[in-house]
Amino acid sequence: xxxxxxxxxxxxxxxxxxxxxxxxxxxxxxxxxxxxxxxxxxxxxxxxxxxxxxxxxxxxxxxxxxxxxxxxxxxxxxxxxxxxxxxxxxxxxxxxxxxxxxxxxxxxxxxxxxxxxxxxxxxxxxxxxxxxxxxxxxxxxxxxxxxxxxxxxxxxxxxxxxxxxxxxxxxxxxxxxxxxxxxxxxxxxxxxxxxxxxxxxxxxxxxxxxxxxxxxxxxxxxxxxxxxxxxxxxxxxxxxxxxxxxxxxxxxxxxxxxxxxxxxxxxxxxxxxxxxxxxxxxxxxxxxxxxxxx
Length: 294
Prior knowledge:
Structural class: mainly alpha
Shape: elongated
Oligomer: single chain
CATH architecture: Orthogonal Bundle
Number of strands: 0
Organism: Nonomuraea deserti
CATH superfamily: MetI-like
InterPro entries: BP-dependent_transpt_permease, MetI-like, MetI-like_sf, OppC_N
Radius of gyration: 23 Å
Family: Belongs to the binding-protein-dependent transport system permease family.
Largest sheet: none
Pfam family, one: OppC_N
Keywords: Cell membrane, Membrane, Transmembrane, Transmembrane helix, Transport
Distance between the termini: 29 Å
């Protein structure tokens, strides 16, 4: 005999009820989508490498291991005599950590604001969405440079600035989704049953807006990596001797004619990671779209 929540979900088809068969179908469609599966596998590899970078790196990123600007080591030696491969691995770890932390801040705050604004409405919605519009009126990179320059170059400041800048992306997406489903039967049924508003938001509405949030998370990480690289390139991100992909690009530009690989390696890695995130995000959007399900 079906329990009450399951019976309600079956009677109201808009309510998501995740089953094992649904997960298997999703995984099958994901594997069948070659671009998405390849991008996902590459991102998984990148995540594992970044997680275990201190163990994988042949040297400490601060150690002087050879003559500056020579071909020693797997990928060469930089201008201070440090191993490029070791610094590239730690730089990837740093950039991903900053991007993921910033997107986590943006996602939590942005989703919460979007849920409240869409469900409560009235003056609460007006205040939240007008504040989002004000934040969107500033060019992101210009605002980020200004704020980080005032607060000082530090990774914590970079995380906070990027996180705040990407809050509107999540808020607007969730807000529009909540507006379209708050009058659905399963939401009204939860209200009639006396469910607390907080429980309705978390247990009833949030699962129905999860798909666009997942897609936005993937795309936002790619944008955050680019933003962090730009700020670090300008000297406002990671500070020496800690490397990030942006700082390595900035340092390598001075030796473009002598040893161009110092610029090429981190630049190519940024391009590959960002490209994989965008392809994976696009693929997830198609897979999670009900119109593409068979």
